[in-house]
UniProtKB/TrEMBL annotation:
Gene3D superfamilies: SET domain (2.170.270.10), Tetratricopeptide repeat domain (1.25.40.10). This is SET domain-containing protein. InterPro entries: SET_dom (IPR001214), SET_dom_sf (IPR046341), SET_domain_protein (IPR053185), TPR-like_helical_dom_sf (IPR011990). Coiled coil: none annotated. Pfam families: SET (PF00856). PROSITE patterns: SET (PS50280). Residues 140-276 form the SET domain. The lineage of its organism: Eukaryota, Fungi, Dikarya, Basidiomycota, Agaricomycotina. It comes from the Eukaryota. It comes from Mycena maculata.
Length: 376
């Protein structure tokens, strides 16, 4: 298995070769953080910072590379050479000259040093990085930004009506649910290794909910953000709520994840989906949901329903307990004997869903009641 830091550095080098220095610099920052004692990451980042004319950052990177390189002569030469260019560009001519001297002392070419001393760093070929294309989010009517307690989340930038489609996004990684973990593990690593440098950077910027436990960063990020059949850039940013105002589903024909509004959603409101299947949400008490979410997803739910206390929490738990009983009774009803009772149960369940502020699944109860009555 190639260590994640190596995979990331390799893709950073690809971005660098393609002239995408922004992506390269950001990827080197990630690879450095995973392999802190290896000077190559920061040495390479000093070069991409030079390309971006980030002189101060390039100087700092080269200085760190010098410290980490110890007695590695080729690295020392490169670091001193790069730092001399960064220093010269900042007007520190004495510092730049001293670095070039050091470069020669560590085996660098005197002729190259003499030429460098005369070169104007601003005249060095600096290719502009490609202009970023607007993300799906900018066009769709939602914005990914910081929440108070849940990291980032998606917020409406226009009013949505119930039933509106909020997002349709092709997954960055599409993988069927693995049948066994070992096989899944390898498939995830291979899929991450195949990502383009830009997608790898997007992947690495996703939330990691498992980092405190160590392990492989690719697997951790994948586990935190995976939807039933893959992982998306934007869809994976929508937070969970036990009172969701939207839902996601995979649309096989277009190969896209789609998110639809369950309720009207006003500008500025956070759009939240449910990570659990419906009955596990509307049919469970706060404590049951917390246990399930912690075990399956490794976080403690802080949604509005889970943040209730005292009598309002008890009322919510009671409603959800009753909804589960109604649901279980409905599926067990024999329509030949219990036609009216089925309808009463469906009406009561829908009333409880409304009281709870749970916008989904009323149609499930209604459809089941209709199907049972039809069988009478
Ligand atoms: C798929 S990510 C969602 C986007 C994430 N908030 C981010 O910053 O990118 C899942 C993570 O978001 C946070 N999260 C989502 N819903 C939450 C909730 N209801 N309560 C607390 N944290 C939540 C948890 O840290 C979880 O591991």
């Amino acid at each position: 298995m190639v260590p994640p830091a190596e995979v990331i550095k390799r893709q950073a080098n690809e971005a660098f070769k393609a002239g995408d220095y922004q992506t390269a610099t950001a990827l080197y920052s990630h690879s450095m953080s995973l392999d802190v004692d290896n000077p190559l990451h920061v040495l390479n980042r000093s070069m991409s910072n030079l390309k971006l004319t980030n002189w101060k950052e390039a100087e700092i990177d080269a200085t760190l590379a010098l410290t980490l390189s110890k007695k590695n002569e080729p690295n020392l030469q490169k670091a001193l050479f790069r730092r001399s260019r960064a220093r010269k560009a900042q007007g520190d001519l004495a510092g730049a000259r001293a670095d070039l001297k050091g470069y020669v002392a560590h085996g660098g070419s005197q002729k190259v040093a003499d030429t460098e001393a005369l070169t104007d760093p601003l005249a060095v070929d600096v290719k502009p990085s490609p202009i970023p294309t607007p993300s799906t989010a900018d066009q769709a009517g939602y914005k990914i930004k910081d929440t108070v307690f849940m990291g980032k989340g998606a917020f409406a930038t226009r009013n949505f009506h119930r039933g509106d489609r909020i997002l349709a996004e092709k997954p960055m990684i599409s993988l069927p649910e693995p049948s066994d973990f070992k096989e899944g593990y390898q498939a995830i690593l291979s899929a991450v290794e195949r990502l383009s440098p830009k997608d790898l950077l997007r992947f690495l910027s996703l939330h990691n909910g498992y980092s405190a436990k160590g392990g492989n960063i690719f697997i951790e990020i994948y586990r935190t953000n995976v939807l039933p059949d893959g992982l998306c850039d934007d869809a994976s940013r929508f937070n969970h709520s036990c009172l969701p105002n939207a839902r996601y589903s995979f649309h096989g024909d277009s190969g896209r994840y789609r998110i639809f509004a369950f309720t009207d959603i006003a500008i500025g409101q956070e759009i939240r989906v449910s990570y659990l299947s419906s009955r596990n949400v509307y049919g469970s008490t706060r404590d049951e949901r917390r246990v399930r979410i912690l075990a399956k997803l490794n976080f403690t739910c802080l949604c509005d329903a889970c943040s209730l206390e005292g009598v309002t929490l008890k009322a919510s738990d009671d409603r959800r307990r009753e909804m589960l009983v109604l649901w279980e009774r409905m599926v067990k009803h024999d329509p030949r004997f219990h036609g009216q009772r089925v309808i009463n149960d469906a009406v009561q369940a829908i009333r409880l869903l409304r009281e709870e502020g749970y916008a989904a699944d009323a149609d499930d109860f209604a459809t089941d009641a209709a199907a049972l009555c039809d069988a009478l």
